Amino acid sequence: MLADACFLLDRLGHFVRGDAGILLIAMYVGLAATDDEPLDELSDRVRAWVMGLDEASPLTPVVDAVLTAADTGLTVEEVLQRLFRYPAFFGVVAPEDRRWHSAPATDLTPLAFEFGHERVDYTDHGAVQLDAVSTAWLESIDRVFGEQSGDHTPADTRQLVEEFAESLRVAGIHPAWVHAFMAEDIPLPQPDGSFSSEEHRREWQAAVDRYNRLHPEEGRPDASVEFAKWRGFFATKLLRVAADDEVFARQLIDWFEHDVREQKVNVLFDFVESARDVLLAAVRDDGELRTASIALAERWGGVELAKDVTECLMFDLDDLVDPVALFVVCVAYFVRRA
Question: Source organism's superkingdom (predicted)?
Fold first, then answer.
């Protein structure tokens, strides 16, 4: 991130070689600056951003080191040598430290969410409060993307949305739904059929109706059919994310074990329960699936979880009702079928 920001500043003619203070500007550009940031205001904005960092943030010692080095006349190379001593210099930067703290209404959205509002609309954009499952899912995407790319930078949001929309099409979700989500930028309904608000429901239906008027040949979507497809799609997406990211899998297991009945957890729970007979038949006939399930359990929860899943699979197979064991087997099943 720092190297890319320095390269960008150099291309713009703002990289002053030998001036360690440029590293602080580069950190700001890479972490918090927007695409339309006025270049002549960078120095002032950097100071305001630094002042807004929490004293307890892991990033604060890194920023302090750069500030001190700039005041003592150290070169860029000498400062970088010192920064390598800080673990936070290599870590993922928290979203809170990427926020701009010094503009009007910066904290209005989090305050609105704190007081129970699910959505905040501005003249040029809106913000929707994410539930626990969606938050964990997005964190997983960034985590996996960072591991795959090797630079731990966040995934490109627009690209992720486009890939998600394409997967909706592949899953057979009605084109009117995909249009409302992609072309009109309206959040999808909840998988259980609910909406964040009555206004959200009206906006969604209006977008679907507009598409139907323009494309009558597609036919009108049957709400019950589309919600059933959406629930199945959502549940299988969670299973695939769990297969790729053991941190996310452990979070789901924790919710199952503590009987957390968050709406999207319920969707996954119901899906796994509905697949019980298929999973039981597969486990009976496939010894490799049993082995894979136990291996997943050990990877996600250690010896204790592996023992629990083993006992369910070996001794209580006809009465397999443990939600965690079912979930582990379900993920292993989908991995083998992928």
Answer: Bacteria
Note the pTM of the prediction, 2 decimals: 0.65
Measured in degrees and rounded to the nearest 5, phi and psi for residue 128 equal -120, 135
**Whether the Cβ atoms of residue 133 and residue 238 lie closer than 8 Å to each other:** yes
Check the CA dihedral 298-303-307-310 and report its sign. positive
**DSSP state, residue 258:** T
**Which residues are within 8 A (CB) of 17 and not within 5 positions of it... i.e. 6 or more apart?**
76
CA–CA dist 53, 251 (Å, integer): 29
Q: What sign does the CA torsion over 55, 58, 60, 61 have?
A: positive
Q: What is the pLDDT of residue 7?
A: 44
Among 106, 124, 14, smallest CA distance to 52 is for 106
DSSP result, 85-132 = T-GGGTSPPPGGGGS--SSTTTTHHHHHHHTT-SEEE-SS-EEE---H
Q: Could you please report the per-residue DSSP string of 27-39?
A: HHHHHT--TT--G
* Other beta carbons less than 10 A from residue 69's beta carbon: 22
The candidate with the shortest Cα–Cα distance to 305, out of 254, 262, 260, 266, is 254
Ranges under pLDDT 50 in the chain: 3, 5-8, 12, 16
Distances (CA, A) of 195 to 40, 91, 190, 257, 303: 44, 37, 6, 27, 41
> DSSP for 12-64?
TT---TT-THHHHHHHHHHHT--TT--GGGHHHHHHHHHHHS-TT-THHHHHH
Backbone angles phi, psi at 69, to 5 degrees: -65, -40
Length of the chain: 338
232 Cβ neighbours under 8 A, 6+ residues apart: 171, 271
Question: What is 232-250 written as a DSSP string?
Answer: HHHHHHHHHHHHH-HHHHH
